[in-house]
Design brief:
This is Uroporphyrinogen decarboxylase (URO-D) domain-containing protein. Helix content is 54%, strand content 7%. It is α/β, with parallel strands linked by helices. The protein has a single domain, classed as Alpha-Beta Barrel (TIM Barrel), CATH 3.20.20.210. Helix 5 runs parallel beside helix 10, helix 6 runs antiparallel to helix 10 and helix 11 crosses helix 13.
Amino acid sequence: MFPMPENWKELTVKERQTARLQAWANAGLEFTTPEAKKAYEQRTRMISDVVQLKKPERIPIIPWVGVYPAQYNGVTVEKLMYDYEVLGDTFRKFNADFLPDSLVSCSMIGPGKVYELLNIQHYHWAGHGTPPNTSYQYVEEEYMRADEYDTLINDPSHFFQHTYLPRVVGSLGPWAMLSPWTNVIELPLVAMAAVPVGIPNVQQSYQKLLAAGQAALEWFGAVGPIENASMAGLGLPQIISGITKAPFDYLGDTLRGTRGIMLDMYRQPAKLMEAMERLVPIAIELGLSGANAANSPFVFMPLHKGADGFMSNKDFEKFYWSSLKVVLLGLIDAGAIPYIFVEGGYNQRLDIISDSGIPAGHTVWMFDQTDMKEVKKKLGGWAAFGGNVSGSLLKAGKPQEVTDYVKRLIDDVAGDGGYILANGAVLDDATAENVHAMIDTGKEYGKY
């Protein structure tokens, strides 16, 4: 847990960021060796320097890894979701063999037993809708209807409990009968609000939720020691802890779907804008709660529907960027560092995000398919950035091709610091030789 200073409200934004970085660097881990402690201190110092736009001793290498460790260890993703001993062996092996500069976490694999108990409808996962060796897959639908904006805006929590969750979580279907607890404003209303809870199928849904909670606790109890073994034994700091999304993606990914939200931009733009404004404080709190719990300054933010080709720059500024910027500023004001995973291409968006009033040295932008020379030109000296080593190169290329690409990337954009070496898309499929080539080249060629 982040130890918030007593004088927090009196600190400047930069002082709050520094307090979070220092707490993260002094995490209180019981390192297994002096070498692990030294490595942890070196890595947190390098990453902190990059965030603050300084030249570190070398470029930090922070790959964004999905289910590839299963392939590397010769097991299925499905196995990792149900057998936590194998999960631990797999991720400890990956971290030890590749030694990146941050922890490759096993937590994103997720517990299949929990998903089964809850009867998750809006995702397929390994062995349950997708092949055993694959990552999970979202099943996109309009889980919020076009005429339900007012319900969401008036009470987002009740909308999720009463409408959204019963539609996507099979075991919670009976929750559609529950009353909003904001109805309990006088003693006689307590019993009336409790009546639906007594309905047999509602009680059954709670029993299923309790069973899922127990299974989730078992999973969490396994994940913690797995993570700590690599952090304390190898000196790998945790980067990804808190997670949140742009309000447009909150709606477009989770609730309305791509088609639905694109139609809303033209058919009911005012309602869309109002809903995104309503979701801003929720998105900020979601990110901060995870960062605070893990004592990490970073809040991971995947950007989805703002990529080039989804909408014009004019619409991007109005519908996507306007509320995303407020979320970023809210996180920054709390001393957190948005760690933004820019999926697809943002070649048309660079001028907008770099000329936005967001303070320098408070964000990290990881790019997928954006021209990195242009990124350097627009973001250099304002924000840390990285990414761009393609998944196709790591899968189908040769180690020398990976080495050459990494060297060119470093030569082109990393000379002044503020740069992180990473792959551009989540790493689910690759060859070990190519992943080693990316990491090892970065460590050798990325020295300042």
